[in-house]
Amino acid sequence: MGYKKSKVTLRTSEALRFIKLVVQIKLANEVLPQTRDSWAQYYTMGLTSAFILALALAVTVAIAKPTARSRLKRVVGGRPYLEVGYPFSVSLWYMGDNNYYTAETPDRHHTCGGSLVAPKWVLTSAACFDDNFLPGTGNLSQWKVALGMYDQREAEEHAEFRTITEVFHLPQYNLSESYGDLALLKLDSPPEWDCPRVFTVNFNDKPDCPQANQECLVLGWGQTAEAPFGNGSYVPNYAMVTVQSIADCAAAYGAPDVKALIGNVVIDENNVCAGNFPDGGVDACNGDSGSPLLCPCGDYGELQVAATVSYGFGCARPGFAGVYTRVGLYASWIKQTIADNN
């Protein structure tokens, strides 16, 4: 995620806004009707006061003076999150050579992110499984799905690995235009529900959420700066971003000099653009594709997966927000695909 040259600690206003979002999760899950399957109820029950308190403690750590380790591996403009902070966040490992990681990082396999939206289903980026984008990634036998993982330097006993049996690309997906960048992964088996490390998460089904100027959270194991390429983070990070209007975002990406570098991408209501506009400094980056953008889209303001990371013009550059695929427009496709192939 993007690079921020200002002081390392979170500004107080940022911390307070984050706490506000955390409180929204707590309140929503105490009153949210239990109308979904048992696995969804399990997730909702898991977001109890104790769990939310743990998240609040993570904010306290973020406000405090950082350790040397956190200075090394932070989302620039954000923070490493608590070890059990977002138990639906998934790390997708490609075990073959896709030229992402360098000779200095041979022990890393994380390539993309995702969200566990049902017991055997991960929502992610379609481009991550497109041979035309990342050669070899269409070979599902080369992938591992890491659930409940935090620090990728450690052999964590609680981490669960699954294989992918099928990939379902959104029918509207178009690589050349970076459009409809959404896919569902079917896993070989559900997780063991190691509370509080593995839960599912609700995805947004409202096409108009999020809206411009709304504040959301982006998560991921991706790069903490645009360069050097291939240096993703060993631990996952979160950053607070603000949604930009589609008109402003499309205008920035439509500039002739930008189009000459990244091609004729289409940015419309299919997308969400978010970052720290216009200053830059906060963004998703390489290795974050498919990772969730969490916004308060629920009926009670709870955080839901509102979009997935797709692409950007570099990372966290001034004048450019990151571009995401809006989930609410395709909620019916997600639900139907899972129902028909479960």
From TrEMBL:
Example GO BP: proteolysis
Ranges that cross the membrane: 42-64
Organism domain of life: Eukaryota
Keyword Protease included in the entry's annotation: yes
Key words of the record: Disulfide bond, Hydrolase, Membrane, Protease, Serine protease, Transmembrane, Transmembrane helix
Molecular function GO labels: serine-type endopeptidase activity
Boundaries of every Peptidase S1 domain copy: 75-339
A cellular component term, taken from the record's GO annotations: extracellular space
Annotated protein name in UniProt: Serine protease
Upper taxonomic lineage: Eukaryota, Metazoa, Spiralia, Lophotrochozoa, Mollusca
